[in-house]
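Lab notebook, bench 4. Still working through the backlog of constructs that have no structural model yet. Next entry is a single chain of 124 residues. Request: give me the structure tokens for it.
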Amino acid sequence: MADADARDERRPAGELEAAVMAALWAAGAPLTPGRVQTELGSGLARTTVATILTRLHEKGVLSREREGRGYAYFPVQDAPGLTARRMHTELDRDTDRETVLARFVAQLDPGDEQLLRRLLEGDE
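Model written out:
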């Protein structure tokens, strides 16, 4: 068990969170930490999975419902919704929104720029 915990700690937290989110989205139903561990099939310790789920819940990315003595977790948004939320979070961190948005748009590839124009014009 100690070896599994040591391996878990060497993996980036974002990678572990992404794997947990992917498992929850694929399940389409609330999962307990033990069930997430089984779905991942990567040798993560159950305590590691439980910690990741708790952190994602505290960030507002997951919701949970009581199941037995513990909780079953589920995403509050789909993957595109979560990405959009992260983009808003990053935008909110800077006081110069105009510059941030201008630089974001300036760095878009032509296809994404055209898509953004269509979305802003309401032609979707």
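Notes after review: Confidence is low (pLDDT under 50) at residues 1-9. Strands lie at 62-67, 70-75. Flag for follow-up if needed.
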